[in-house]
């Protein structure tokens, strides 16, 4: 019996293991078929290898264009502008190649993943546990053969796709490595050029050249390289260009509104003295935005800067027309022409004898023009005196450019050549930009005589005829950056600073860089400014030109708080993501805030939550006429923590949102801006009351500002001490007309009562003194 029991247990265990293996085998077969189906679909979805090959071909063609003059057709020496343009193109090509390479890596990873999944399923140990029963064994072997036949074409397709991807990936890796080696070679040349700035590169300008290349070829490949760099940079910075356009539109709207205000108040002067910024709002907006925000473009190609500067020059020229003297207008146009010639020459990327003579002649003309301008001694006519210093500096730089050009120092000569004329143009542009900013603030002071939230609490009373010193500091820094970009040494010296800013630093488990901190605060600052600009354009009554637009602006103003919350919240999350702050640190901060809220921030949180309730439920909107605990006025703004009510006395009442919700709030605007008026009048006791009633009704019906529905009511209230009291109830069409209507009614009623001999008695008393006759005699 014991032996039988052991055999039964062994047989049962074997059957259990067999059933278990069978269940695993069925599951594996299902997973294999599902994986094969997914793999087939993935292979069919495919990767457009033809497009990737075409892109690789374009990258190689663009590299050939970029290499011209640097790696092939080098000439006697390298030029800084050619190295810079080539480096920008190759960096863009590396970025494009890396993007395609990442796609190929992801594709290869997925293909290998399917192969690994199939291999791991087919090597499972349970698949090799064969049934002992012959019939079951035959069925199982048949299933294995079927699965093997199904897997074979899929595995072949995966191998072929993986091989094709790998070949293409190898091509891209090879091309990226080649591009990186080219960048390294260019950087070595730039470093040598920066260290040996004054080293001779070419023979003297009058000597025979050592290398000759047709000038037409130089112009052709320079034009192609310039267009290529501009195309690449524009595609990669389309968002910044759209932001520039948006800022221009907002600035134009603001300046146009200022001009409308000054036109309506007849404050514009004929010569626009002190008001030049609003002479042409669109041109001023373009000039201001381009000059200030061109610095958001990191290391732009020279041709893009040239476009920005030419647009700014055209705008300032049109604004100058008829404002500055004819002499200084001619000087400005001459400087623009010199700058245009120098900038066009700066886009020529390889040296030639023709270009060197052109540079020399223009430098000499610039020197002579500058000396004549300085010795004319008409500086007193200048609106900005610093312009004379920039012209003197131009003369010095052009003297250096001409001398270096003569003795074969081509790169430094070209740098001084473009730097001299660029310094004058940028200085004039920036000086007038600062002047326009100051003019805009002064003009705004005439409109907004008090500090206001929507104007960022600027104290316009402190703005004078001269711009603040800080603006001139920024002007000088911008001038140094724009002019310095043309010097190889500037780029060489700026690298350590950029490395210091981008270096990763660690505090505990958190790694950060100074760049990431700047980025965080920059995004948050932009978010705050954008939210305030939205608030300004939603609440500024000067931008409203009609009653319908005013009503729309009030309805829009009621949503301003929600829009600002959305902008700030989005800015916060973008700043956190861009700066790389880990989310677990944010949860710690939120936890700490929760503790602070529990202990001491209940009032602040109550006000913030009340602000959200007001924003969503809208018991009151911006522009509504309200009464809060007996204090009446107009709702000026609804903020995060508090709201502002402009009282009828002209003061701004700042009320926390929590108090606003908890107080007895009467919103007259929700009731249609209507309020019943009561007027009490007393008449003499001998008055004909019916006649008086009829007279009052006629007066009320004749007043157009009184609403006919509901009709006004005339009631006799009581017998007073000296008169019969009459109470008049009426509704005006708008509550803003209540007081003027009441005043005019009193005048009309007084005139009508006098014409009909109806007296309005005044309180009077008769005093009787009772005395004895004896006392009278003594007196």
Automatic annotation (TrEMBL):
<feature type="transmembrane region" description="Helical">
    <location>
        <begin position="510"/>
        <end position="538"/>
    </location>
</feature>
<feature type="transmembrane region" description="Helical">
    <location>
        <begin position="327"/>
        <end position="344"/>
    </location>
</feature>
<feature type="transmembrane region" description="Helical">
    <location>
        <begin position="276"/>
        <end position="296"/>
    </location>
</feature>
<dbReference type="InterPro" id="IPR023408">
    <property type="entry name" value="MscS_beta-dom_sf"/>
</dbReference>
<dbReference type="InterPro" id="IPR049278">
    <property type="entry name" value="MS_channel_C"/>
</dbReference>
<feature type="transmembrane region" description="Helical">
    <location>
        <begin position="302"/>
        <end position="320"/>
    </location>
</feature>
<comment type="similarity">
    <text>Belongs to the MscS (TC 1.A.23) family.</text>
</comment>
<feature type="transmembrane region" description="Helical">
    <location>
        <begin position="238"/>
        <end position="255"/>
    </location>
</feature>
<dbReference type="InterPro" id="IPR006685">
    <property type="entry name" value="MscS_channel_2nd"/>
</dbReference>
<keyword id="KW-0472">Membrane</keyword>
<dbReference type="GO" id="GO:0008381">
    <property type="term" value="F:mechanosensitive monoatomic ion channel activity"/>
</dbReference>
<dbReference type="InterPro" id="IPR011066">
    <property type="entry name" value="MscS_channel_C_sf"/>
</dbReference>
<protein>
    <submittedName>
        <fullName>Mechanosensitive ion channel protein</fullName>
    </submittedName>
</protein>
<keyword id="KW-0812">Transmembrane</keyword>
<dbReference type="InterPro" id="IPR052702">
    <property type="entry name" value="MscS-like_channel"/>
</dbReference>
<dbReference type="InterPro" id="IPR011014">
    <property type="entry name" value="MscS_channel_TM-2"/>
</dbReference>
<feature type="transmembrane region" description="Helical">
    <location>
        <begin position="416"/>
        <end position="434"/>
    </location>
</feature>
<feature type="transmembrane region" description="Helical">
    <location>
        <begin position="387"/>
        <end position="410"/>
    </location>
</feature>
<keyword id="KW-1133">Transmembrane helix</keyword>
<feature type="domain" description="Mechanosensitive ion channel MscS C-terminal">
    <location>
        <begin position="678"/>
        <end position="759"/>
    </location>
</feature>
<dbReference type="Pfam" id="PF21082">
    <property type="entry name" value="MS_channel_3rd"/>
</dbReference>
<feature type="transmembrane region" description="Helical">
    <location>
        <begin position="469"/>
        <end position="490"/>
    </location>
</feature>
<dbReference type="Pfam" id="PF00924">
    <property type="entry name" value="MS_channel_2nd"/>
</dbReference>
<dbReference type="InterPro" id="IPR010920">
    <property type="entry name" value="LSM_dom_sf"/>
</dbReference>
<keyword id="KW-1003">Cell membrane</keyword>
<feature type="domain" description="Mechanosensitive ion channel MscS">
    <location>
        <begin position="603"/>
        <end position="669"/>
    </location>
</feature>
<dbReference type="GO" id="GO:0005886">
    <property type="term" value="C:plasma membrane"/>
</dbReference>
<feature type="transmembrane region" description="Helical">
    <location>
        <begin position="356"/>
        <end position="375"/>
    </location>
</feature>
<feature type="transmembrane region" description="Helical">
    <location>
        <begin position="559"/>
        <end position="580"/>
    </location>
</feature>
<feature type="transmembrane region" description="Helical">
    <location>
        <begin position="586"/>
        <end position="609"/>
    </location>
</feature>
């Amino acid at each position: 019996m014991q032996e039988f029991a052991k055999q039964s247990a062994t047989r049962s265990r074997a059957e259990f293991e067999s059933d278990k293996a069978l269940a695993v085998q069925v599951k594996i077969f299902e997973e294999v078929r599902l994986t094969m189906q997914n793999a087939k679909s993935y292979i069919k979805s495919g990767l457009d290898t033809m497009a990737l090959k075409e892109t690789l071909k374009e990258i190689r063609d663009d590299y050939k264009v970029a290499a011209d003059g640097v790696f092939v057709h080098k000439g006697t020496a390298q030029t800084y502008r050619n190295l810079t343009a080539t480096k920008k193109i190759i960096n863009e090509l590396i970025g494009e190649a890396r993007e395609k390479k990442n796609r190929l890596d992801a594709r290869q990873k997925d293909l290998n993943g399917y192969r690994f999944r199939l291999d791991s399923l087919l090597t499972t140990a349970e698949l090799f546990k064969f049934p002992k029963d012959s019939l079951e064994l035959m069925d199982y072997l048949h299933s294995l053969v079927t699965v093997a036949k199904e897997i074979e074409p899929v595995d072949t397709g995966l191998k072929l796709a993986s091989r094709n991807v790998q070949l293409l990936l190898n091509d891209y890796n090879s091309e990226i490595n080649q591009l990186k080696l080219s960048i390294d070679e260019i950087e070595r040349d730039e470093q040598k050029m920066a260290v040996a700035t004054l080293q001779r590169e070419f023979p003297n300008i009058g000597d025979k050249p050592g290398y000759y290349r047709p000038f037409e070829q130089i112009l052709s490949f320079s034009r192609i390289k310039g267009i290529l760099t501009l195309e690449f940079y524009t595609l990669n910075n389309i968002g910044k260009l759209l932001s520039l356009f948006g800022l221009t539109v907002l600035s134009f709207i603001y300046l146009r509104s200022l001009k409308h205000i000054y036109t309506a108040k007849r404050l514009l002067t004929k010569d626009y003295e002190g008001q030049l910024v609003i002479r042409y709002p669109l041109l001023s907006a373009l000039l201001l935005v381009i000059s200030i925000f061109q610095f958001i473009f990191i290391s732009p190609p020279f041709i893009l800067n040239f476009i920005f500067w030419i647009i700014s020059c055209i705008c300032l020229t049109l604004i100058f027309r008829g404002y500055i003297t004819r002499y200084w207008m001619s000087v400005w146009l001459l400087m623009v022409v010199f700058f245009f010639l120098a900038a066009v020459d700066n886009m020529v990327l390889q040296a030639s004898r023709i270009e060197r003579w052109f540079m020399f002649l223009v430098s000499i003309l610039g020197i002579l023009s500058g000396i004549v301008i300085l010795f004319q001694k008409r500086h007193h006519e200048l609106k900005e005196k610093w312009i004379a210093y920039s012209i003197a500096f131009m003369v010095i730089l052009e003297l250096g450019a001409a001398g270096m050009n003569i003795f074969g120092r081509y790169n430094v000569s070209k740098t001084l050549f473009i730097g001299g004329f660029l310094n004058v143009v940028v200085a004039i542009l920036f000086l007038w930009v600062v002047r326009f900013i100051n003019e805009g603030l002064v003009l705004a002071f005439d409109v907004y005589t008090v500090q206001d939230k929507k104007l960022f609490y600027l104290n316009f009373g402190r703005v004078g005829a001269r711009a603040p010193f800080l603006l001139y500091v920024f002007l000088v820094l911008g001038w140094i950056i724009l002019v310095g970009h043309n010097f190889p040494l500037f780029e060489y010296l700026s690298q350590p600073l950029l490395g210091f800013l981008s270096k990763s630093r660690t505090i505990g488990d958190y790694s950060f860089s100074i760049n990431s901190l700047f980025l965080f605060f920059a995004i948050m600052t932009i978010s705050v400014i954008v939210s305030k600009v939205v608030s300004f354009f939603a609440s500024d009554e000067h931008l409203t030109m009609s009653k319908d637009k005013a009503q729309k602006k009030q309805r829009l103003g009621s949503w301003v708080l929600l829009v600002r919350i959305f902008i700030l919240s989005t800015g916060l999350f973008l700043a956190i993501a861009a700066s790389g702050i880990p989310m677990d640190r944010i949860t710690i901060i939120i936890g700490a805030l929760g503790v602070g809220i529990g202990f001491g921030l209940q009032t602040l949180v109550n006000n913030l939550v009340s602000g959200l309730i007001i924003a969503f439920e809208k018991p009151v909107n911006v522009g509504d006429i309200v009464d809060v605990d007996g204090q009446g006025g107009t709702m000026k703004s609804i903020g995060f923590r508090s709201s502002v009510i402009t009282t009828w006395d002209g003061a701004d009442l700042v009320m926390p949102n929590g108090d606003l919700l908890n107080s007895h709030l009467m919103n007259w605007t929700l009731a249609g801006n209507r309020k019943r008026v009561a007027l009490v009048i007393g008449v003499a006791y001998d008055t004909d009351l019916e006649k008086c009633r009829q007279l009052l009704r006629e007066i009320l019906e004749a007043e157009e500002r009184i609403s006919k529905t509901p009709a006004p009511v005339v009631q006799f209230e009581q017998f007073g001490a000296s008169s019969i009291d009459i109470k008049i109830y009426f509704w005006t069409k708008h509550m803003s007309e209540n007081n003027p209507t009441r005043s005019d009614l009193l005048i009309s009623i007084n005139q009508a009562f006098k014409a009909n001999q109806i007296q309005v008695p005044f309180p009077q008393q008769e005093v009787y003194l009772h005395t004895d006759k004896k006392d009278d005699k003594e007196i």
